[in-house]
Amino acid sequence: MESSILPAVIRLRASANSFLSQFEPLVLVVAPLVSFLVAQIVQSLIQVVHEKGLKATLIVCFMTCVKLVPGVKRYIDAEKQKVVDKLQSSGKSKRDGWRTELPSTGLGSGVLEQMKNEKQKDAAWQGKCSGTVYIGGNESEGHFSLINEACSMFAHTNPLHLDVFKSVVRFEAEVVGMTAALLGSKEKACGGQICGNMTSGGTESILLAVKSSRDYMKAKKNITCPEMIIPESAHSAYDKAAQYFKIKLWRVPVNKEFQADAKAIKKYINKNTVLIVGSAPGFPHGVIDPIEELGELASSYGICLHVDLCLGGFVLPFARKLGYPIPPFDFSVQGVTSISADVHKYGLAPKGTSIVLYRNHEIRKHQFVAVTEWSGGLYVSPTIAGSRPGSLIAGAWAAMLSLGQEGYLEHTREIMEASKRLQKGVKEIPELFIIGRPDMTIVAFGSIVIDIFEVNDILSSKGWHLNPLQRPNSIHICVTLQHVPIVDDFLKDLKDSVQTVKENPGPVSGGLAPIYGAAGKIPDRGMVNELLVDYMDNAC
Ligand SMILES: *Cc1c(COP(=O)(O)O)cnc(C)c1O
Question: Domain of life, per the record (predicted)?
Fold first, then answer.
C-alpha cells in the first residue's frame, strides 16, 4: 500500500513546489497561514452548528453579513436604541435632580425625611405584584416589624468573624439545619450528612451548587471540560453559573406537560457531564419536574443532580402535610446531590436570604475557598461574599422561629387555596388556557385567540404586576399571602382585560406588548441579547 502511495505523494509535492515557487516568498508564508485560518474557521463553524443548530447559525451568518452593508448597522443600532428607550420607563432623563456626589455638609438625620419621600415613589407593592413580597395577610404588620427589629439588632454583625459574632454563627447553623430537616435530612438513608450554608439569594445558592458540583466531579472523575444539562424551564441562574464558571450549558426542551424531559436530557449526557437539574417547581409555570426519574439518571451515570427548591422549599413540605398530592422532590430521592431553597420567598424572611444544601460534606468541601499564601493571613470563606450581613441571618432566624411549623402550615393552606381558586377562575375564562398543571402557587396562562401581552398591559394599567413569559407567550402570577384577600378582584380585572382586548385588539398606548411580541419572534437571538444588555446599561 504505502510503497504505491509514497511516490505519488512525492511527485505531487514536487509539482506543488514548482507551482508555488512561481510566487513571491511572502506568499509562501501567507498561504499556509491562510489555509490554517480557513481550517480554524470551518472547524469553529461546525462546532457552532453542532451547539446552536443550523438555523440559528445561518441567522447569525446572515445578520453578520447584513450589518456589513454600509448604513445598515447604524440603522439597526438606532432602532435598537428606540426599543431600549421604550423599555426604559425610568430612563436617564428621569434622573434629573439625582445626586452625583456627596453633600459637603452631611444632612444628619435629615436623610430619613428624604428617604420617606423616596419610598412614596415606589409602585404600590402591597397586594398586586406577582411574587415580589411574600409576607402579607392580616398579621403581616407584626411580621414585618418583627423582622425589622431582628435585623436592626444585628445590623453591624458579620459571620466572617466567627470568633466575634457567635450569635449569628449559631443563627446561620440553625436556619440551615431547620431548612434541611424540612427537606429530608432527618431520614435514616441520608445518614446525618446533609449540610449547607446561607447565601444572598437563590442565584448565589445555584451558583455555589454548580461550582461545587463541577469541582467535585473534577476530583472524582477528572472531568476537565465540564458540561451541564438543564431543562428549558430552569432558572436563568444556571446560565450565569455556566458563564462565570466556564461550563458548557445544554438547554433541553420540556415535555408536553412542561416538565423536564428525562429521556431528552439523557441524550445529552456524555463523559464531560457534571450536572443535571430539576426544579420543584420551575419558575415559569409552577410545575414540578420528575425528580425521581432525574435522580435515577444521575445515579446511573454517577453525576450530580441539583434540585431547585427556591420557590418550593418552604411550601411543598407543608402542602404535602396538608394532603396535596406532591411527588417526591427532596433528599429522600436517591441521586439528588444538592438543593437550593429561598428563605426570602415563601420562608417569609427578609430579602437577601437563601440556603444551599448538599447531600454530604465531601461535596460541600468543593464550595469553600481556602488561601494559604496571602500576607493577610490564612483565609477560608464558605460562600461568594467575604463579609456577610449578620442582620439578614438574624432576620431569617426570627422569621422561621416566630412562625414555626404551624405558622408555615397555615400560610401554605391559605396560598394553596387561593391558588386553586385563582386557577379555577382562569379556567372559566374561555379565551385563556392554563399552561401545564400547576403543582403549587404559580399559575401561568396564555391565549390562542388574543394577544396575552396586551391583556398584561391592561392589567398593568389596573395596578397589577405580572410576569411575561415566552415559549409559549404567556403571563404568570406567583400567588403570595398578599393575594389571598384579593383573588376575586384579580379575576374580575383579568376578565375585564380579556374582554377589552377581545373587543379592541391592538397595542395599548405606552404598553410593552409589541416589544414582548416582537422579541419572541426576532430570530436573531444575539440581537435580543444586545438589546437586553443595552437596556441594563441604561438602567443602572
Ligand atoms: C427566584 C428563583 C430563583 C433565583 O432566586 P433569586 O433569589 O432571585 O436569586 C431560582 N430558581 C427559582 C425557581 C426561583 O423562583
Answer: Eukaryota
pLDDT digits (tens, 9 = 90+) for 91-127: 556 778 889 999 999 999 999 999 999 999 888 777 8
Most informative mutation of 134, 236, 283 for ligand 1 (most atoms within 8 A of CB): 283
Determine if ligand 1 sits within 6 Å of the CB of residue 308: yes
DSSP 436: S
Minimum CA distance residue for ligand 1 atom 4: 202
pTM of the model: 0.88
Look at residues 389, 55, 457 and name the one whose alpha carbon lies nearest to residue 199: 389
> Would you say the CB of residue 312 lies under 6 angstroms from ligand 1?
no
Instruction: Collect all residues with Cβ–Cβ distance below 8 Å to 281 and sequence separation of at least 6.
Output: 287, 288, 289, 311, 312, 438, 439, 440, 442
Is the CB of residue 285 less than 8 Å from the CB of residue 258?
yes
Question: What confidence tens digit (pLDDT) does each residue in 397-418 have?
Answer: 999 999 999 999 999 999 999 9
